[in-house]
Amino acid sequence: MMSGVILHQYPTSPYAEIIRLALGMKGLSWSRVEQSNIMPRPYLTPLTGGYRRIPVMQIGADIYCDTGLILREIDRRFPDPPLAAGNAGLGYALRGWGERAWFGVTVAVVFGRRADQVPADFIKDREELSGRPFDTAMMKAAAPMMRDQWRANAMMVEDQLAHGKPFLIGDAPGLADLSAFLNVWFLRSGSLEDFKVVTAGTPRLLEWAARMDAIGHGKPADMTPETAFNIARDASPESPRASSADEPQGLAPGMNVAVMPDDYGRNPVAGEIVFAGPHEIAIRRTAEGAGDVVVHFPRAGFLVMKT
Ligand SMILES: N[C@@H](CCC(=O)N[C@@H](CS)C(=O)NCC(=O)O)C(=O)O
Fold first, then answer.
1. What is the rounded CA–CA span in Å between residue 186 and residue 167?
2. Which one of 115, 186, 220, 259 is separated from 195 by 20 to 30 angstroms, measured CA to CA?
3. How far is the CA of 40 from the centre of ligand 1 (A)?
């Protein structure tokens, strides 16, 4: 099914892999825009208004930031099959484990292994992203202990799969599988030798990983960044949805705000609220050369500041 989904990503991005697999679960046709793995991204930044992380999903003149919200939007537009039948709360909550706690360990193992090969421009870019030193020597020193931690997390997956079902929360793959699998995918592609060591005692995890691999990416077709930009220019944002009446900060349509992640890549994006709810805030802004766009952010993990 043609979805209108345009995914701004790069092949080695683990968070993008979550979305590629979610599109695969839905069996969608989508447009794949390859972005650089470091800044600048001249056709993307004008659309997001400064948000700098990958992936970003675009549908016409609507721009969706952060995996958490992109998953929700894919599920809203293409509900069948659901990404978390009956388990949406647990599924989104588990992102904190799979995509943060465990993923921090995975990054440490991969970059600890490759410490001597990380390009200087990549290190500089990630230091700007995080505001902290990207200390490959420290990652190298910590790698043995991080491998221990990786195995402990993998054993949680192994224990869960003792239920005998094919996926973490039942018979169909969903959000929990995506968040956990991110770690398998990144470690396996970043350091197969470490992956083999830390999965020596987790046979059920390996069988589950093969089932995740079999999902695929749906039907991607390549699109240039410039074409995606022109699509935003020629489209209008979708009509606003209802806002919640009980916004804790009193946020309401028409107010000016700046929105940014609360962890890293804290570049504020300024605009006027179109709608706000417990899981999403959408702001309208003018993208230079592309007219009005609406940029959507999740609420969990993001700061909304009145301006
Ligand atoms: N919480 C974000 C994390 C995204 C993230 O950290 N992505 C990495 C790439 S996988 C990134 O943006 N790195 C910096 C960059 O590519 O500019 C999400 O779920 O989308």
1. 19
2. 220
3. 14
